[in-house]
C-alpha cells in the first residue's frame, strides 16, 4: 500500500513539472526573418557558436562598419519595440569576444521586421477593387474584407502560421466576429498572403456606421502589443437613393451643385423635370464632369424632363454634379430628380430656386465734376450676360436711348459692341474709370446734368423690360482757373509766388512770363510748367536766383489751362524756337521773341481767345524793383531804456532782416572798470504794410552806455543793406522827496515837512570815438559838474 502511495506522489510531481515547464523556444537560423514582438527566441546551428551570441548589430553603412543600432540578447529572448525602434533590416549576430567593427567576425545575420496587417473593406460588385472605407453604401450593396500582411513564411512556436480574427463594431456599439452571417473568428491565416472574406450581404443590415479591425489572438506573440490592423469604417444608409443640393436658392448667373448618394458604381438618371419653358431657360449640366456618361435617351423615363444626363456613382456610392445658370434662366423653382434605371425605380428629388439678380452703380465723389476729370464708376452685378455689365449715357441733346461713354455715339439695342462693357469680377463687383478728358478729345460734351446707366444686358433705354439696371446721376461743370501773385512788386533777388486753382483735373498749367527782353527765359521763349495737385491747387515760384537778374520794370504773366481735353491748344517753339503755334487747323504761327513785353502777352492772349481753342487763361502783372530798406529816424535814447527801431522796405513779406546795433566807441579800456560798450543783434520779419512793407526791431538798452550807436539792417536774399546812427544819452534822474515827521510837545499838533535828498552826480563817460557833436555834449556835461562841486 505504501509503495502504491509513493508511485502516485511521483506521478503527480511529474504532471506538475510538465505544467510549469517552459514552452519550447523558437529556433531561428541565420538568414531568417524575425518579427518585432516575438518571444522565446534562440539561435540555431546555422549560426557560428550560437550558444555564445550576446548581441545583434545593425549597420548604417555595412561596408564601412558604421554601427547605428545594437540589441543585447540572452537566449531565449524577446524582440521588443523598444529594442528595435524604427531601425529594421539586417542585424548581425556577435558573441562576447567578437568585434562589431569587423562584420566578418559575425556568427550570422537575421532580417528584423515589424509585423504589419492592413485591412480594407471592398465593394463586391464589378472588379472587386473599389474600397468603401469611410464611405456609405446601401442594403443593395455586397461587401467583403481584404487583409494583407508582411509575415512571409512565418511560423510561430507551434510550427504553423498565426491566425487573426476580424472584430466588427456594430452601430449600437456591440462587437462581433460573425457580421452579416460570415464567420471571421481566428481563422484568417497570416503568412504573407492576401485574405479575402466571403461576401457580406447587407440586405438586412442595421442602418448606421460599422467599424472593423483585424486582431491578434491571445495565443500569439503579437497579442496586445500594438500590431493589430488599421480600423476601417463604412455606413449603411437607410435610403437606397438620395439627392441633395448645396444651395436652396441661387442668383441666376451663378452655379449650384447636387450630390447623388446611392449604390456604388451604379448608373442613375439625373434630370430637371419639365416646367414648360424654352430650352435656354433651364439650368444646364456642365459638360465633361466625371461620372457624366451621356444624355438620357428619349422615352427612357416616364417623367417628362427638360435637361438630363446618365450619371455613374463612385465606389462610395456618391457623385456631385454642377448646374450652371445665366441671365436667360427663368427666375423660378426647379425640381431636380435622380432615379434608378429599370422598372419601378427608386428616386429622390430636391428643389432649387433660381432668383433674378441685381445691378448697382455708384459714382465716386459728390456727383459734381469738372469736364476733364476722371470719374470712377463702380457697383455690383449678380446676373450680367457673359459676366459683363453694359454702360451708356443719357443727357441734354444726346440720343434719347443713350450713347456710349467712350465716343458719345448712339448705342444699338442688343449690339454689345456699341456699349461700354465692363468685366464682372468673381465677387460680383465691377469698376470703370471714365476719363472725361478722353471723351472731349473725340466729341464736345457740354456742362450739365447726365445719367449713367448700368445694365445686365446690352439693352438701350426703351427696352429694359427683360434686363436689370441701375442709374447714377452726375453733373459736369466747365473747368475753370484762378490765379494770383504773392505781391504786385517784387524786389530783385526776392522770391515771387504765383498760386491758384485749376479745376478740371489737369496734370499741370503753363506759366508764361514776359518782360523787357524776357520771354520766360533770357532771350528765349519758354513756358514754365506748374504741377496741379489733387485738390486743384498749383504754385509756381520765381526763386531768388530767378529774380536777381531780372531787369527792373513791369512784367506780364499768362497762366494757361488745357481745359477738358487735357491738351494745350497753344504751344511754344512751334514750328521753330521763338514761335507760338495753335494746334487747331487754320491758325498761323506767331513769332513772340522780339516783341515788346506787352505785345508778346497780347499775341499769346489773341491765340488763346480763338474760338477753335478751348484753353482758358488768367492774366497777371507784377513789377521788379531795385530792393531797398529804409530805417525810420531813431532820435536820442536814454541809457537803460527799451525802444523800437522801425522802417519800411520793398522786400517780400516774410523775409528776415538781420539787425545789428553796435557802439561807435573805440578806445583803450581801464582796468578799474568793465570794458566795452553794449551791442545787440537779431532779426526782424517783414510784414505787410499799408503801402510799403514794414519791419520793426525791439532794443533793450539795459547794458548800453552813453555813446553814439550804429544800426545796420541787411536782407540776405536781396543783398540789400541800410544803416543809421543814434545817440544813447545819460538818463535824467528826478530828485526824490523824503518826508520828515516832527513830534510836537504835548498839546500841539504833529507836523510833517518834505525834505529834499541831495542828487547824486553822474560819472561822466570816457571820451569815445564818436561824432564831434557827441564830444561837445559830453564836454558841456563835465564842465557843469565841476562848477557845481
Question: Can you give a write-up of this model?
Answer:
- By secondary structure, this protein is mostly beta strands.
- It folds into six domains: 26-113, no CATH class; 117-236, Immunoglobulin-like (Sandwich), CATH 2.60.40.1930; 242-355, Immunoglobulins (Immunoglobulin-like), CATH 2.60.40.10; 362-477, Immunoglobulins (Immunoglobulin-like); 481-625, Sandwich (Immunoglobulin-like), CATH 2.60.40; 634-789, Immunoglobulin-like, CATH 2.60.40.
- 8% of the residues lie in helices and 40% in strands.
- Strands 9, 11, 12, 13, 16 and 17 form a six-stranded mixed β-sheet that branches. A six-stranded mixed β-sheet has the order 19-27-26-21-24-23, with no helix packed on it.
- Strand 44 and strand 45 form a beta hairpin.
- Residues 13-23 and 738-789 have low confidence and may be disordered.
CATH superfamily of the largest domain: Macroglobulin (MG2) domain
What's the CATH class of the largest domain, please? Mainly Beta
- Rg, nearest Å: 56 Å
Give the tally of structural domains. 6
How many strands appear in the DSSP assignment?
A: 56
Helix percentage: under 10%
Residue runs with pLDDT of under 50 for 5 or more positions: 13-23, 738-789
CATH names the topology of the largest domain as: Immunoglobulin-like
Tell me about the largest β-sheet.
6 strands, mixed
Q: What would you call the quaternary organization?
A: single chain
Q: What class would the helix/strand composition place it in?
A: mainly beta
Rounded mean pLDDT score: 85
Which architecture of the largest domain would the CATH scheme give at its second level?
Sandwich
The total count of helices amounts to 6
Report strand %: 35-45%
Shape: elongated
First-to-last CA distance:
174 Å
Amino acid at each position: 500500500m505504501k509503495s502504491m502511495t509513493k508511485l502516485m506522489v511521483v506521478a503527480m510531481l511529474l504532471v506538475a513539472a510538465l505544467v510549469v515547464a517552459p514552452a519550447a523556444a523558437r529556433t531561428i537560423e541565420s538568414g531568417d526573418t524575425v518579427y518585432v514582438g516575438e518571444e522565446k527566441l534562440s539561435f540555431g546551428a546555422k549560426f557560428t557558436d550560437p550558444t555564445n551570441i550576446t548581441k545583434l548589430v545593425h549597420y548604417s553603412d555595412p561596408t564601412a562598419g558604421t554601427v547605428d543600432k545594437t540589441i543585447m540578447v540572452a537566449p531565449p529572448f524577446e524582440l521588443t519595440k523598444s529594442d528595435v525602434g524604427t531601425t529594421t533590416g539586417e542585424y548581425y549576430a556577435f558573441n562576447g569576444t567578437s568585434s562589431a567593427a569587423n562584420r566578418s567576425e559575425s556568427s550570422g545575420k537575421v532580417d528584423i521586421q515589424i509585423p504589419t496587417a492592413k485591412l480594407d473593406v471592398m465593394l463586391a460588385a464589378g472588379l472587386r477593387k473599389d474600397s468603401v472605407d469611410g464611405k456609405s453604401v446601401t442594403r443593395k450593396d455586397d461587401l467583403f474584407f481584404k487583409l494583407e500582411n508582411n509575415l512571409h513564411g512565418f511560423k510561430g512556436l507551434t510550427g504553423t502560421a498565426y491566425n487573426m480574427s476580424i472584430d466588427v463594431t456594430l452601430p449600437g456599439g456591440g462587437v462581433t466576429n460573425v457580421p452579416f452571417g460570415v464567420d471571421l473568428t481566428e481563422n484568417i491565416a497570416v503568412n504573407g498572403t492576401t485574405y479575402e472574406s466571403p461576401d457580406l450581404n447587407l440586405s438586412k443590415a442595421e442602418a448606421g456606421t460599422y467599424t472593423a479591425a483585424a486582431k491578434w489572438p491571445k495565443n500569439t506573440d503579437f497579442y496586445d502589443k500594438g500590431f493589430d490592423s488599421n480600423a476601417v469604417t463604412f455606413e449603411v444608409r437607410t435610403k437606397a437613393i438620395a439627392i441633395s443640393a448645396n444651395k436652396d436658392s441661387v442668383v441666376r448667373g451663378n452655379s449650384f451643385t447636387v450630390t447623388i448618394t446611392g449604390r456604388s458604381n451604379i448608373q442613375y438618371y439625373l434630370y430637371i423635370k419639365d416646367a414648360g419653358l424654352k430650352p435656354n431657360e433651364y439650368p444646364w449640366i456642365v459638360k465633361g464632369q466625371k461620372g457624366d456618361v451621356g444624355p438620357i435617351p428619349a422615352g427612357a423615363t416616364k417623367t417628362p424632363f427638360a435637361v438630363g444626363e446618365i450619371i455613374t456613382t463612385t465606389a462610395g456610392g456618391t457623385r456631385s454634379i454642377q448646374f450652371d445658370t445665366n441671365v436667360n434662366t427663368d427666375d423660378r423653382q426647379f425640381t431636380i430628380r435622380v432615379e434608378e434605371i429599370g422598372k419601378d425605380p427608386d428616386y429622390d428629388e430636391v428643389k432649387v430656386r433660381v432668383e433674378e439678380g441685381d445691378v448697382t452703380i455708384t459714382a465716386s465723389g459728390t456727383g459734381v465734376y469738372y469736364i476733364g476729370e476722371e470719374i470712377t464708376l463702380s457697383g455690383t452685378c449678380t446676373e450680367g450676360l457673359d459676366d459683363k455689365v453694359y454702360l451708356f449715357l443719357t443727357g441734354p441733346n444726346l440720343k434719347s436711348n443713350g450713347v456710349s461713354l467712350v465716343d458719345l455715339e448712339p448705342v444699338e439695342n442688343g449690339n454689345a459692341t456699341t456699349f461700354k462693357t465692363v468685366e464682372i469680377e468673381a465677387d460680383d463687383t465691377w469698376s470703370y474709370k471714365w476719363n472725361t478728358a478722353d471723351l472731349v478729345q473725340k466729341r464736345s460734351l457740354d456742362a450739365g446734368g447726365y445719367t449713367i446707366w448700368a445694365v445686365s444686358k446690352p439693352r438701350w433705354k426703351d427696352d429694359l423690360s427683360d434686363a436689370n439696371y441701375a442709374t447714377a446721376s452726375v453733373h459736369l461743370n466747365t473747368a475753370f482757373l484762378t490765379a494770383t501773385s504773392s505781391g504786385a512788386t517784387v524786389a530783385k533777388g526776392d522770391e515771387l509766388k504765383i498760386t491758384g486753382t485749376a479745376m478740371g483735373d489737369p496734370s499741370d498749367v503753363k506759366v508764361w512770363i514776359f518782360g523787357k527782353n524776357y520771354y520766360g527765359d533770357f532771350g528765349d521763349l519758354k513756358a514754365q510748367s506748374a504741377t496741379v495737385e489733387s485738390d486743384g491747387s498749383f504754385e509756381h515760384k520765381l526763386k531768388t536766383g530767378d529774380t536777381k537778374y531780372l531787369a527792373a520794370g513791369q512784367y506780364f504773366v499768362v497762366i494757361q489751362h488745357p481745359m477738358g481735353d487735357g491738351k494745350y491748344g497753344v504751344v511754344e517753339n512751334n514750328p521753330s524756337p521763338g514761335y507760338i503755334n495753335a494746334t487747331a487747323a487754320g491758325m498761323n504761327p506767331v513769332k513772340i521773341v522780339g516783341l515788346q513785353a506787352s505785345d508778346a502777352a497780347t499775341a499769346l492772349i489773341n491765340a488763346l481767345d480763338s474760338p477753335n481753342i478751348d484753353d482758358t487763361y488768367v492774366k497777371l502783372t507784377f513789377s521788379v524793383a531795385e530792393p531797398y530798406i529804409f530805417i525810420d529816424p531813431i532820435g536820442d535814447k536814454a541809457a537803460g531804456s527799451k525802444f523800437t527801431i522801425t522802417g519800411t522796405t520793398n522786400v517780400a513779406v516774410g523775409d528776415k532782416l538781420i539787425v545789428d546795433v553796435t557802439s561807435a566807441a573805440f578806445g583803450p579800456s581801464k582796468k578799474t572798470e568793465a570794458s566795452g560798450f553794449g551791442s545787440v543783434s537779431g532779426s526782424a520779419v517783414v510784414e505787410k504794410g499799408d503801402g510799403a512793407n514794414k519791419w520793426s526791431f525791439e532794443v533793450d538798452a539795459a547794458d548800453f552806455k552813453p555813446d553814439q550807436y550804429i544800426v545796420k539792417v541787411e536782407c540776405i536774399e536781396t543783398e540789400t543793406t541800410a544803416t543809421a546812427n543814434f545817440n544813447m544819452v545819460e538818463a535824467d534822474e528826478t530828485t526824490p522827496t523824503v518826508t520828515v515827521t516832527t513830534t510836537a510837545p504835548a498839546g500841539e499838533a504833529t507836523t510833517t515837512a518834505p525834505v529834499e535828498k541831495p542828487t547824486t552826480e553822474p560819472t561822466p563817460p570816457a571820451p569815445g570815438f564818436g561824432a564831434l557833436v557827441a564830444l561837445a555834449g559830453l564836454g558841456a556835461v563835465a564842465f557843469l559838474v565841476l562848477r557845481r562841486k
